[in-house]
Structure prediction request, 71 residues.
Amino acid sequence: GNCCTNFVKTFSHENKFDVELNDFISALHVLQITLPDDLMSATKILQFVIAVDCYLDVSIAYRILITVSVS
Prediction:
């Protein structure tokens, strides 16, 4: 939804996109199905994503999520 759109807009400049919105949303849907049913922290999800090595955009998004301070 909006979070994905905002993420893509943040990493675009003059109609050049580092992340393609539909691919990003599709990857998140597949990841949701692939993740274990256990409750996982953002760090654990990032570790899982890195281990399976197929969700580059999701990996980048989680790295940013973990490193950006929220106030």
In short: The radius of gyration is 13 Å. The helical segments are 2-10, 21-34, 42-52, 56-67. The beta strands are 12-13, 16-17.
